[in-house]
Amino acid sequence: MSRTRVHRRTLAVEGGRPVRDQLLVFGRPTIGADEIAEVTAAMTSGWLGTGPRVARFEAAFGAYLGAPGAVAVGSGTAALHLAMLVAGVGPGDEVIVPSMTFAATANAVIHTGATPVLVDVDPQSQNLDPARVEAAIGPRTAAIVPVHFAGHPCPMDRLEALARPHGIVLIEDAAHCIEGWAGGRKVGTIGDLTCFSFYVTKNITTVEGGMVTSGRSDWLDAIRVRALHGLSGSAWKRFSDAGHTHYDVVTPGFKYNMTDLHAAVGLRQLPNIERWSRHREALWDRYDEAFADLPVDRPALPGLDGDVHARHLYVLRLRLDELRADRDTVLRALHAENVGVGVHYVALHLQPYYRTAFGLRPEDFPVATDLSARTLSIPFSPGVSDTDAGDVIEAVHKVLRAYQG
């Protein structure tokens, strides 16, 4: 059962005593002795750049997903950019992305020279709405980028049915969805390319890093070359004990490679992924029970057979019509109670660059506009202990009860 108390105390933001003495950091990664030991081993190995640990991490991650191939890169953003480039996305093309996503999804489109076409989302899953995707497809549509928001898998069967007849490439943004399944298929094995992130807040981390999976070995080979300056051979192979070999610059590439130091962390995180997933599942259930009678909409789980939520974020949607405060006031009050929170997200069409560059208006995306004002993410990771969870629950109750009515 959830630990809650009487919530008549003065809010910390108004001078009362906070629920916690120290801040519970939102998205704090779980790093243990195994990760530290592997990083130390990498540091003393004499090889810090892209090398044997990166290769091992690629193989282990691909095996976990059951993906035909995987290439590690420096970030999830790099993964998206390279995936689009090798798929042929470029100037004159349009790429459909959800408005309710992090900037990296659309920024990557901009960096290819193509134009992002923002589409509104489903109000429950916060994923791309297939009906709106269908309406947005035009003669210049080169790719669709489904974002598995918070770990909720997108309706990939429906999106495939829209994309395939037109030869449109499906590039999944699975930054939130390593453990997810969509329609009985593992995320990472469905789209033409799938991009993952291992940033510090993700379900497993390499501190900074990303991965691209695909059934197209030619695309993966091209990503590997473009990720390291466009060189024809990897640095590890050129300077290993096999002897020095010259390289050719075959394309103007990028500095997007993953290092062995980062892969060292990932190698020790990956074996914990299912155990940590079970922890988040139990925490999800505890939160669901605790918040059932509060003025919030709790996150939805998939309703389709064969779908598995990766449970990356636990996102509350405040019922502002039942509160005497806006989302940011609630956010500040929770932080004053020493409970860290996040916002996922203020939609792209509301951001200054996209609003101005593409002439977008809040009313063009009513669902994403509404969600942008109401969404609030609370601590939700393997590092959240039973005591921490009790503090989160108490703080959410204390703040929302104070502003209710």
Structure, explained:
This protein is α/β, with parallel strands linked by helices and 405 residues long. It folds into two domains: 12-28 and 273-403, Alpha-Beta Complex (Aspartate Aminotransferase, domain 1); 33-272, Aspartate Aminotransferase, domain 2, CATH 3.40.640.10. Helices cover 37% and strands 12% of the residues. The protein contains 14 helices and twelve strands. The chain has a seven-stranded mixed β-sheet with strand order 1-9-8-5-4-2-3, with helices on both faces.
Whole-number tally of structural domains: 2
What distance lies between the first and last C-alpha atoms, to the nearest angstrom?
26 Å
- Uncertain residue ranges: 1-7
List the helices and strands in order: HHEHEHEHEHEEEEEHHHHEEHHHEH
**CATH level 4 superfamily of the largest domain:** Type I PLP-dependent aspartate aminotransferase-like (Major domain)
